[in-house]
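Lab notebook, bench 4. Still working through the backlog of constructs that have no structural model yet. Next entry is a single chain of 388 residues. Request: give me the structure tokens for it.
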Amino acid sequence: MRILVVNAGSSSLKLRLLGEDDELLQSEDIDDVDELESVVSKWGMPDAVGHRVVHGGTSFTSSVRIDESVIEKLNGLIELAPLHLPAALDGIQATGRIFPQVPAVACFDTAFHSTLPAAAATYALPREWRERWGLRRYGFHGLSHSYASRRAAELLGRKVEDLRLVTCHLGAGASLAAVKRGASVDTTMGFTPLEGLVMATRSGTVDPGLLLWLQTAQELSAAEISEALEHQSGLLGLSGNADMKEVARAGSAETALALDVYVHRLCAGVAAMAAAMGGLDAIVFTGGVGENSPVVRERCLTLLEWLGCAVDGSANESARGDAVISPSTADVGTVVVSAREDLEIAGEVRELMDARAEGGNASLIPDLKCLDRQARTPLNGKEPARDK
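Model written out:
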């Protein structure tokens, strides 16, 4: 089975074609969904298409075959992920037009965190709010955390069901997950991808009272605050540069502070994740920063020596792709894993397709007539009750 994986970000599309043994047959990143047809039409018809969808809300806790009802529910979730869901829906529409006879599957970043216990998922907000608007911690980067945890176990020669792992997805967006026996039991992102760690241009967690003060005392609008938190904060806000590679080698007072703040939040988060599991067996670094910044890894592991972490300096500096960078004597192992959301998505697609085939359901063609962008309407015809 050849699987076309469409990974829609807020400003780009990653396209991957995987063969029957998950070998990478074709790969291309594009900036506009309008380029999709010219790229994938040259690759031949796949057997199925897997789409990364950032937010599944409470409606989707596992991958699902895309049909009209799925599209309708995704329309109703757009306000929860306004930068990502429209792009995912555009990708679904485009591939449905190019390959109308090919089944499509939605794979959700939030699904991996559906196992969060109530203590980790619940905000201490009025019950009426929580029930009326579905206010809870959803978590994100689940496809990456899921793959990284299993791959790390393989590299350590262990079963993931026997391990307590903190997976660190550190890229432009960044989050941690506490993975105990293969299941997510805590994570740093919450209702939106803004909560948690310092990121490239996102602030991570800030005092909500500070935001209220900016609105009331300084009369900043919700739109101004949102723009600042999403696009002008994080490493960029601290140092003027959103690229960790540049921040780590610049040497100015501002970049030094940015790195200190980044690592401080990262270490605090790792310790919190370990506490949620009652201990720690290994730390996993993945994502652009996690894979390519030995400085961040070394500083983090040094500050976490009290937790049993250690770093092999030579292995850390030379790590390229999947690698163990902790000495054999360390109480807590450390692994670098190349981010492969495409493999996780393909695996979920294969599993779902196999299950459907065994069940004898031949209805494989989704009804895409409701994918017209102008026709998108929220679930139940109601706008989610959130501030614009």
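Notes after review: Residues 311 and 326 are 5 Å apart (CA to CA). Residues 361-388 have pLDDT under 50 and may be disordered. Flag for follow-up if needed.
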